[in-house]
Fold this sequence. Notes:
It is a single chain. The protein has one domain. The chain has two helices and three strands, in the order ββααβ. It has helices spanning 57-85, 94-122; strands at residues 34-37, 50-54, 125-127. It has a three-stranded antiparallel beta sheet, with no helix packed on it. Helix 1 packs antiparallel against helix 2 (94-122). The longest helix is centred in the middle third of the chain and has 29 residues, at 57-85. It is rod-shaped and about 120 Å long.
Amino acid sequence: MAVVKGDIVEAISASGEVDASEKADLIFQGSGKLAWVGVKEGDKVKKYQAIAKLDTVLLNASYQQAINSYTSYNAAAQKAEDDVIKGHSADETYAQKSTRVAAQVARDNAYDAMKAAEQSLKFATIYAPFD
Length: 131
């Protein structure tokens, strides 16, 4: 056997799994048709960057309808309240009270529906929680 001059080479072989220091499961809070995905696997993202969005046509329509309902119910409640305030606050009848309270409850329910529709629209976009 002949001796040959050369470089000494050392190699290490290993197997395993690479894991991110931060990760998050991102899901929409509501259902709908996916309209847009702004990133692909391997892309770098910045905190608060939009990642994906649902189609908002129906969500916008629902929100506008909720605003309109609230506006209508608010006007009815203000009229019922004005009718009592104008000289009848001390002698409000049961019928007046029933009308006033029903109008106020309808206004409050419409307000809650408007805020729910607003939240649904807001949550139609998923944002990156970190860089």
